[in-house]
Write a structure and sequence with these properties.
It contains twelve helices and two strands; from the N terminus they run αααααααββααααα. By secondary structure, the protein is mostly helical. It has a two-stranded antiparallel sheet.
Length: about 325
């Protein structure tokens, strides 16, 4: 009988104090009814094996799940994690990059700014990811324990049971044709980076000299007033890029329409880039003098460098446009 007493103890110790005595009596009665007269220790072990793990049995009396997120909500839970965490991480990273660049005084070397963003970014992304996962998990744990319908049938993203009609809301997208969420978030991130750099270029790019106390910023490479003078054009490009990223997020795949919009956007960016870089006053005079004295470049070298930059930008723009149309022509294959 010692095994029975220990088993009942293992079950009841997991229960609230007010339930223990009644359930102990009920459980002992159940076990005795299942045992033969004058049972051996082996008979007791067989019956206790049939009753199962004391923790599971105690949980049955409590009628509450032993898992944090059960099968009913697990698919919805993981799907929301995959959607929300990348969004929060992207917003957090964009905020960090923008804040670091905007608050730069121009006295730090560019590499130190990049190192600061990387070091702070890793920690901030880790904290943001953990906090987001914690709160989503907490919300689902509460939902799991307040749900009055006790079943383990997985729910769909609209928190309803799956039916064949749900297939009508799903579109088959070939992998090579798909526009992933990472691609969309990457577009937002890239826009935030280059926009922050553009409006603070004079304090980021220039001549640095190594001194006893580290690198010192000597002269800016760009004339910031010239860069600011193009703010309507640059702002238009930023708005178009953000709008296109949102559009791609809804489209979810490369279509002919998406490819055409991408071609128009890339052409606009190319024109804006050529207009800005062709301004003879774009470069800081001190910077040009320094380069001329150290590198002794000629007017021909300067023109060659300009032309090479523009040709390179044109080539990458054409490749991007062609790639968009190529992906839009990928046909669907159903299995």
């Amino acid at each position: 009988m010692k095994l029975i007493d220990l088993y009942i103890q293992e079950v009841t110790r997991r229960l609230p104090e007010e339930l223990r005595e009644d359930i102990a009596l009920e459980l002992r009665s159940t076990i005795e009814d299942m045992l033969p007269e004058e049972p051996s220790e082996e008979d007791v072990k067989v019956i206790l094996s049939q009753l199962g793990n004391p923790a599971i049995l105690a949980n049955g009396y409590l009628d509450r799940p032993m898992h944090l997120i059960g099968p009913k909500y697990f698919d919805v839970y993981t799907s929301l994690l995959k959607i929300i965490i990348p969004i929060t991480l992207t917003i957090s990273l964009i905020t960090l990059i923008g804040k670091t660049i905007v608050t730069s005084t121009g006295e730090e070397a560019l590499y130190s700014i990049i190192f600061s963003i990387v070091s702070k970014g890793i920690w901030q992304l880790l904290i943001t990811g953990m906090q987001t996962a914690f709160w989503i998990t907490l919300i689902f744990a509460i939902i799991e324990r307040t749900d009055k319908v006790r079943d383990n049938i997985p729910l769909t993203m609209n928190f309803k049971k799956w039916t064949p009609d749900d297939l009508k809301n799903i579109s088959y997208i070939p992998k090579k044709k798909a526009i992933t969420k990472i691609h969309v978030f990457g577009s937002f991130l890239w826009t935030a980076i280059w926009a922050s750099v553009y409006f603070n270029a004079s304090s980021l790019f220039g001549i640095y000299e190594s001194q006893s106390d580290g690198f010192k910023f000597i002269s800016s490479a760009f004339n910031q007033e010239v860069l600011f003078s193009y703010w309507p054009l640059v702002t238009l490009v930023i708005v178009l890029e953000v709008a296109f990223a949102i559009y791609k997020g809804f489209a979810r795949q490369w279509t002919k329409k998406v490819a055409v919009v991408n071609a128009l956007l890339q052409t606009t960016i190319l024109v804006a880039f050529i207009v800005i870089i062709s301004n003879n006053e774009l470069w800081n005079a001190t910077f040009l003098t320094y380069i001329n004295e150290t590198a002794q470049y000629t007017e021909q070298v300067k023109n060659w460098a300009y032309q090479s930059i523009i040709v390179t930008f044109v080539i990458f723009t054409v490749i991007d446009i062609i790639e968009g149309f190529r992906k839009s022509r990928i046909t669907k294959k159903y299995f």
